[in-house]
Amino acid sequence: MKDLIARLPKAELHLHIEGSFEPGLLFEIARRNRVALPYDTIEELRNAYKFLNLQEFLDIYYQGMKALLEEEDYFDLTRAYLDRCAADNVTHVEIFFDPQGHTGRGVPFEVVVKGILAGLEDGERRHGITWRLIMSFLRHLSEEDGFATLKEAEPWLDRFTGVGLDSSESGNPPMKFARLFARCRAMGLLLCCHAGEEGPPDYVREALEIGIDRIDHGNRALEDPELVREIVRRGLTLTVCPLSNTALGVIERMAESPVGRMLEAGLSVTVNSDDPAYFGGYMNANFEAVAAGLGLSEGDIVQLARNSFTGSFLPEAEKARRCAAVEAARMG
Ligand code: HPA
Ligand code: ZN
After folding, report:
1. 143 annotated active-site
2. 19 lines ligand 1 (CB under 6 A)
3. What CATH number is attached to the domain comprising 47?
4. Domain limits at 245?
5. Is any atom of ligand 1 closer than 6 Å to the C-beta of 244?
6. What are 199-212's pLDDT values in tens digits?
7. pLDDT of 270-286, one tens digit each?
8. Which of 12, 15, 58, 192, when mutated, tests ligand 1's pocket best, judged by the most ligand atoms within 8 Å of its CB?
9. Could you tell me the pLDDT band of residue 11, with boundaries at 50, 70 and 90?
């Protein structure tokens, strides 16, 4: 199984670039930027990565980001992530970044975007990894703040495939951003939305009403059979994050991962790493953990790899080529 997982080409569709900030690199960049950390050693920092829920994680995630100040920092962060992708045979990535987590601290929007784009282009050159960049809005902030960020993003919009919605879910439903998402849609951007990670099935329903193109997490949609049927009917892909779910207490153990029930329901489910530096594993580790926890078959694993490409924002012809590559690799 481990062999098959490693051998298959895969796309990662749910990854926050700031969540790939490994403690070693975090210390290195904090030192060169003279940013003080509340931890003396990498070990101490790692020990702080114990979370009871999403908010406890987010507090540490935003704290870690504070080390990032210069274009070079964003480049190094992205480059390190793509090196890990290459090691896991991830051949296509669609990554989120949180501009408000940086501009809110005084880092100019263009510093963030230039560094990430340079990192993505470097990874494409060195590893042949193709990519899409998705600008994510922080849902604990106001819709007005989101509109201001969209304005700042205007010169860069042709470099972004879509927008997302992340951060503290409870109390911040998708409808809070209905006008912002309508504007983004009108500008030709695709729409993603974290929903049903901690929030209720109604938040997933709202995301559908807003007209989203892909659901991030979506775990709790399973509580509502009618909603599941609607997601199947629309052919929407869900980006599930197994190690994130156990790390944040969204599920108690891997045997409860929604990946199994979603496969059974005929949903287009994918496996992703979310914030791998914080949750203990990149793509293959997530596949291995969920395969072991649920007792998935080799056929299930191949299906998940295929879904990662059919659920991507690649053009249809390219999706077909990538699926053919999955089939070829399956045979070994
Ligand atoms: N959920 C919500 N917001 C996030 C996450 C997540 O898993 N990771 C980074 N921001
Ligand atoms: Zn996420």
Report:
1. no
2. yes
3. 3.20.20.140
4. 2-330
5. yes
6. 999 999 999 999 99
7. 999 999 999 999 999 99
8. 58
9. very high
